[in-house]
From TrEMBL, chain A:
4Fe-4S in keyword set: yes
Record bears the keyword Oxidoreductase: yes
One GO cellular component term noted in the UniProt record for this chain: plasma membrane
Xref: InterPro entries: Cys_rich_dom, HdrC_iron-sulfur_subunit
Species assigned in the record: Subsaximicrobium wynnwilliamsii
Pfam families in the record: CCG (PF02754)
Molecular-function GO term, any one: metal ion binding
Cysteine-rich domain span: 22-108, 148-235
The protein's name in its UniProt record: (Fe-S)-binding protein
Keywords for this protein: 4Fe-4S, Iron, Iron-sulfur, Metal-binding, Oxidoreductase
Automatic annotation (TrEMBL), chain B:
InterPro entries in alphabetical order: 4Fe4S_Fe-S-bd, 4Fe4S_Fe_S_CS, HdrC_iron-sulfur_subunit, Helical_ferredxn, NarG-like_sf
Originating species: Subsaximicrobium wynnwilliamsii
Stated name of the protein: 4Fe-4S dicluster domain-containing protein
Molecular function in Gene Ontology: 4 iron, 4 sulfur cluster binding; metal ion binding; oxidoreductase activity
Phylogenetic placement of the source organism: Bacteria, Pseudomonadati, Bacteroidota, Flavobacteriia, Flavobacteriales
TM helices/strands, residue ranges: 6-24, 65-89, 109-129, 154-172, 207-225
GO cellular component term of the entry, any: plasma membrane
4Fe-4S ferredoxin-type domain span: 295-326, 359-389
Keyword Zinc part of the UniProt annotation: no
The keyword Magnesium belongs to this UniProt entry's keyword annotation: no
Length: 263, 436
């Protein structure tokens, strides 16, 4: 992972008078969080491997406003939204892919009412479409036969009804997909949503991420697959708390596919 | 004298329908205290939701045991009520079983009613046992102490008695038994009364008949005070319930106009507002009391069955936090009832009582524990959205009171200054591509 990645920006495309196939919305976690940056890079490698002409906004990208909105600050949310929409519309963006279900949900559902309508895909949906078009091949590699359980991100699953795309990708790895007690529409939250990521939990008898990690451990997985940088953090912390990091890995689906091909 | 029973019946019927109508109009008044929302979209999807979720009980059966029992009681309730039509006509006209001349069909109908009555009786007994002996967590939570618990049990007793009366009434109806058609169950009960004289049996039959219909009328009027209002309101509530993806939260229009103003370099801040614009700016952002919520929220509060399916799926509640989405709905209803009584007592005007939904009913601690995961919305069998109320109350806390927890204020300051919830510089946003 030491080589420098080729990550073109929209500004560069514009200067060259070209338009990318898709805009990769990296998101705040994907840009700044050390763990999430690895997911970002894995996804970029898959985009290159599939010969997708993509661009990022780079320094022109700003928080979608999701955590502000869920915290109750509609002003700040709409300020962020309107600013981002101006940038996106100026570049005449049509299609957006993101590895963060919160960015996905916000841009897809809440931006249209403020003047920003785009085709928005979660990266698992996008990878699935690349697979269907024959542009991406998935090999099992080191994950062949591994027990993998998928943790549904609330804003991907219940929030937008996307349950199958991530699961189909996992099955393509020739892995053994096992479901937790609460899954799909009844999936238990990791505890990060609704701006909880940024504050301590209220008094209770357990942390939500521990409860969810216990559900995952119950099905004896070797890997907990995630599709959200925040879930990833929560589940990683949960696994550490249970002192199981030696035998259970928490990985994003993009990482699984990229690692299987030694990218 | 001959008409005395009919006159009495007419009086009882009119009085109970009148009282019911009065309460329905109060209900309407209370619900419309909420602000208006546009629900004119997606009409066909809305009808479909109502047919599937309310009529078809599609969400109930997600929990198979409780779901199946509930379907029995529900079908029994609806079907046996066809019989009430006959009872009312008989009561007013002084006839006896006016539909019986229709012949074999009558026997089939009553036969079905009798079988359903037994099934309902059994289902209700099982419900009672589940609720009172099994100690299912969702029936023993804090918010279920006192009235909510009694309310649930009263209705079960009510159903048992009504079903018993219905069967007794048939069993002691000598003419009906003589027809020997449709008395599939009651023929086995009839022998219990064989030692009685014909006139005592007649008195028992008349008493059961009267108690049964009076019981139904009391039940009708009890609804207004009970969680059992859901048997009526589930229909409008599933119709007006959420259509958009659960992840999509509405954008506050009042905020949009202000944001557009702020972002528009040409806007004249001192310009007179456009005609009509004034009505759009609400007195406050978000909700601190029931009048700030939408009427759909308030309708939902009256619709809530207090089943606790939402709370049992709630990650915050499962991990011992105070938040319970069911309690959010019950508090909203309790406060709305209180506000309604206040209005009644003050000649139609609400007089400030120094209380509100926030703090006096729902605490900040509950509101801040929500992860906005939508598990409650997904679980609700009657399309209630407790999260929507939580979010409106958070909006009030943040935009009107600046009362967010400190860490959230830091997060928001970061977004404002750096375009990210953490204190990183926006200019460093693409640095990851060069990091090993
Ligand atoms: S959205 Fe909030 S109240 Fe509803 S289940 Fe999730 S955490 Fe609980
Ligand atoms: S909100 Fe819905 S799920 Fe929750 S208690 Fe009320 S009816 Fe049941």
């Amino acid at each position: 992972m030491s080589e420098q990645l080729n990550v073109p920006t929209m500004a560069e495309f514009m200067a060259a008078g070209k338009k990318p196939e898709v805009l990769f919305w990296v998101g705040c976690a994907g840009s700044f969080d050390d763990r999430a940056k690895k997911i970002t890079k894995a996804f970029v490698k898959l985009l290159h491997r599939s010969k997708v002409e993509f661009a990022v906004l780079g320094t022109e990208e700003s928080c979608t406003g999701d955590p502000a909105k869920r915290a109750g600050n509609e002003f700040l949310f709409q300020m962020q939204a309107v600013t981002n929409i101006e940038v996106l519309n100026a570049y005449e963006i049509k299609k957006i892919v993101t590895a963060c279900p919160h960015c996905f949900n916000t841009i897809k559902n809440e931006y249209p009412g403020l003047g920003g309508s785009y085709e928005v895909m979660h990266h698992t949906q996008f990878l699935k479409s690349l697979l269907d078009e024959g542009r991406l091949t998935i090999e099992g590699g080191q994950f062949k036969g591994k027990r993998i359980t998928f943790h549904d991100p609330c804003y991907l699953g219940r929030g937008n009804g996307v349950y199958e795309a991530p699961r189909e990708l996992i099955r393509k790895l020739d892995a053994e997909l096992v479901e937790m007690k609460s899954c799909k529409s009844r999936g238990l939250c990791c505890g990060a949503g609704g701006a909880q990521m940024f504050k301590d939990a209220e008094p209770g008898d357990k942390e939500v991420n521990i409860a969810r990690t216990e559900q995952a451990i119950d099905v004896k997985p070797e890997i907990i697959a995630a599709g959200c940088p925040f879930c990833n953090t929560m589940m990683t912390d949960g696994v550490k708390n249970k002192e199981r990091e030696a035998d259970i890995a928490v990985m994003d689906i993009a990482e699984l596919i990229a690692n299987a091909q030694d990218l | 004298m001959m008409y005395l029973p009919q006159i009495l019946f007419a009086i009882v019927l009119l009085a109970s329908i009148g009282y019911f109508a009065r309460n329905v109009s109060k209900l309407r008044r209370n619900i419309t205290l909420g602000h208006d929302v546009d629900v004119s979209d997606n009409t066909s999807q809305r009808w479909k939701n109502m047919a599937m979720i309310a009529l078809g009980q599609s969400k109930m059966v997600k929990r198979p045991i409780a779901g199946a029992l509930h379907v029995i009681v529900y079908v029994g309730f609806v079907v046996i009520n066809i019989e009430v039509l006959e009872i009312i006509i008989d009561g007013l006209a002084g006839t006896h079983r006016i539909f019986s001349p229709i012949g074999a069909t009558y026997g089939v109908l009553i036969g079905i009613f009798e079988i359903l009555a037994v099934l309902v009786f059994v289902a209700v007994v099982v419900f009672w046992l589940r609720r009172n002996t099994l100690k299912l967590k969702r029936f023993w939570a804090n918010e279920m102490k006192g009235w909510p618990k009694d309310d649930a049990n009263y209705i079960l007793y009510f159903e048992m008695v009504l079903m018993g009366l219905f069967l007794t009434m048939n069993a002691t109806d000598l003419e009906f038994q003589a027809m020997n058609s449709g008395n599939v169950i009651s023929q086995f009960i009839a022998p219990w009364f064989s030692s009685f004289s014909e006139s005592s049996i007649h008195i028992i039959e008349r008493s059961a008949w009267w108690l049964h219909i009076v019981g139904i009328l009391i039940f009708l009027n009890y609804l207004y005070f009970s969680k059992h209002l859901h048997i009526l309101l589930a229909f409008p509530n599933t119709y007006y319930g959420r259509i958009k993806p659960q992840g999509q939260f509405e954008n506050l229009e009042a905020v949009t106009s202000e944001v557009k103003m702020m972002m528009d370099p040409d806007a004249d801040p001192y310009a007179a507002p456009e005609a009509g614009a004034e009505d759009e700016v609400p007195a406050k952002f978000g909700a601190s009391d029931v009048q700030d919520l939408s009427w759909v929220n308030l309708l939902s509060a009256y619709t809530c069955t207090e089943c606790g399916r939402c709370t049992s799926e709630c990650p915050a509640n499962q991990t011992g936090k105070k938040l319970s989405p069911r309690k959010i709905m019950m508090d909203t209803r309790d406060r709305l009832v209180e506000v309604g009584k206040n209005i009644d007592a003050n000649n139609g005007e609400f007089k400030d009582d120094g209380k509100q939904l926030l703090d006096d009913y729902i605490t900040k601690e509950e509101l801040w524990a929500c992860t906005s995961c939508n598990a409650c919305v997904e679980a609700c069998p009657v399309s209630i959205d407790p999260l929507n109320i939580i979010m409106q109350m958070r909006q009030y806390l943040v935009m009107e009171q600046s009362a967010a927890p400190m860490e959230l204020n830091n997060m928001m300051t970061n977004i404002e200054n750096n375009g990210a919830p953490w204190p990183y510089n926006q200019m460093d946003r693409l640095n990851w591509k060069n990091e090993a």
